[in-house]
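Late entry, written up from scratch paper. The run itself happened at the end of the previous shift, but nothing got recorded in the book at the time, so transcribing now.
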Amino acid sequence: MSRSAPVLAAFLLASFTIGAVLGCQSAAESSETEALNPTEIEAAQALIDDHVGRFKVPLQGNEPQQGPDDALVTIVEFSDLECPYCARVVTTHKQIRQTYGDDVRIVWMNYPLPAHRNARRAATAALEVHAQKGNEPFWAMHDKVFANQGALTGNNFETMAEELGLNLDELRKALASDRYSATIEAQQASAYDLGVRGTPAFFINGRFFSGAQPLTRFTPIINEELARAKALVALGTPKSGVYEASIASGITKVRAEPPTTAPAPTGAPAPQPSRVYDIPLPKNPRAKGPADAQVVIQEFSDFQCPVCSRVLPTLERVRKEYGKQVRIVYRDYPLNFHKDAHLAAQAAREVFAQKGNKAFWAYHDTLLANQSALSRDDLERYARGIQGIKLKAFRAALDSSKHKAAVDADMAAIAAAGARIGTPAFFFNGKLSIQGAYPFETFKAAIDAELE
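Output as recorded:
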């Protein structure tokens, strides 16, 4: 849903003039919706109706956390205490807390991978610290374990816990009996349901974010979610209800059946969903592969989405190994918080209109390789690198928004089909089989299922 910049600016201005509405309002305070004029209400609703793909990550309320229950942004982290990538996020945690304070809470979930033989016991030890001493000692134990990943033994767990004043007899019993097995396995199953296949994995008010990323990668998403949360509060949602409101309509499963044992290792293919969505192909698609291919993969993507760029090598391998059996059709799905994505999609369509498929894919690859530089001038500069492009016509197409309706039509096709997606999203013969930059093995499983 597009909204004008002046409308959003009006709401943001209002957010500063009615600070109680967007900041420290308690559930007991009266609704501040009446303080907003119709323009401000429209702007607030525009932030709420963001159409970003979200997941429903339920909380039991007894998980270790940093930050208050009514924080505007909740980051649920699925992690493994023996994973070196997870250890790199410790610094980022501290930076997030320093930057955002009580506006953000971080909730810990366990996802010990089968390849890490000490991870399950480390999770048990940390949960016992939490059970005995609460949140602050848990995070102290968390930091100690990550700082000593090469020495995760029973004796060392006791040494770490003793420094925190733990009852060591209870710790030993917890380790011997695998006391928190039900909790850990339930969290593993929840992660797997949500499509998590590696660690660390984060859900920021339900938005999936993966990997040991620095603060600068978290900041844009947190800021967007803060603005959205403040809009929810402005329209009457109590702060204590923001997280539930954010994830209320989120995806609960991205696979068919729950695991019967521990989750599969990182990169394992997910079973394919059975629903077939009615998403007709465009009359003149941007595609690789023959029109009579047995498997048609419609890729809905965003030129400014970093995850979309990561899947390129996998798609190239698909083309190489399956040849004429597979056709990949590119569809536009520029997310509204990527400010340059829509114009980039229009520019790529103009390249296609002028010079066809080969030129489009060359331009496509250039855009994904230069995601931090997608200004209007950059788009023209990349177009000059495509042989035969008429720059006057290219500029005119962007000035007139010639291809805007076509870009919007791709997005409307998803809504009309009743699908909810993030980017990249891949429909295999109409089935929403993959969302995200999964490895080749995941694509292979989905393709082979269709070929069978």
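Strands lie at 65-66, 73-79, 104-110, 201-204, 207-210, 286-288, 295-301, 326-332, 425-428, 431-435.
(Scratch paper discarded after transcription.)
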